[in-house]
Amino acid sequence: MKKKLLLTVLLLLVAASGLYMNQAYAEPLPNIDISIGGEGEEGPNTSAVSILLLITVLSIAPAILVLMTSFTRIVIVLGFVRTSLGTQQMPPNQVLIGLALFLTFFIMAPTLSQVNEAGLQPYLKGELTQTEALEAASKPMKEFMFSHTREKDLLLFMKYSRMEKPSSYEEIPLTVLVPAYAISELKTAFQMGFMIFIPFLVIDMVVSSTLMAMGMMMLPPVMISLPFKILLFVLVDGWYLIVRSLLLSFNP
Questions:
Q1: What pLDDT is stored for residue 20 in this prediction?
Q2: Res 108: pLDDT
Q3: What is the reported pTM?
Q4: Cα 128 to Cα 105: distance, rounded to the nearest angstrom
Q5: Domain ranges in the chain?
Q6: Fewer CB within a 10 Å sphere, N or C end of the chain?
Q7: What is the per-residue pLDDT for 190?
């Protein structure tokens, strides 16, 4: 049952990213039939529990997909950009999240194409069982997460779970790899956010010192420094540099 629900989550992820996969342009997306239950007979209580489990997994599916992709790093860095500029709600949350989603689809397109070719299409054609399809589809995701996970973070969860040292990343379970990848992404995003803050912090310090030297202590320094920070960000083409840095940070 758990394997079937996990496979459903992977299928939804691949279907949502079809815009960025060449296969989606070549042939229409096939219908996906999701059934609950096994081959044997089920009582009403078993069916109710199965439906409850499916609804629970689908409700947390966005969180699962966010932690297994590049979305975490991107949205945090974009949030740091807005905070360092001091523009309050500009750009709005919808714009930042939308940009982060499309950048995630762009970065994850090669990986999701492998998931589609290795797991989804053979499963829909009946060439693989659910267990085999799930295992085949998880390999590209594991490879992506493993390549961006710090060894220290991975060892933390491996030692806590008392698992033996694997011979390859394919033997690492998702329950260990996903949280290790998540905290690695958080650290990387905060490092990039710190580098973004430095030039704007310098502007704030210069403006604040100038206002105090002129005796204008009642004038908020943020009001004066904001136009200069926006001007600097526009002159250096800040959005291009931020997105370029994010794309380069995911290069293997």
A1: 42
A2: 84
A3: 0.70
A4: 26
A5: 2-28+42-249
A6: C
A7: 92
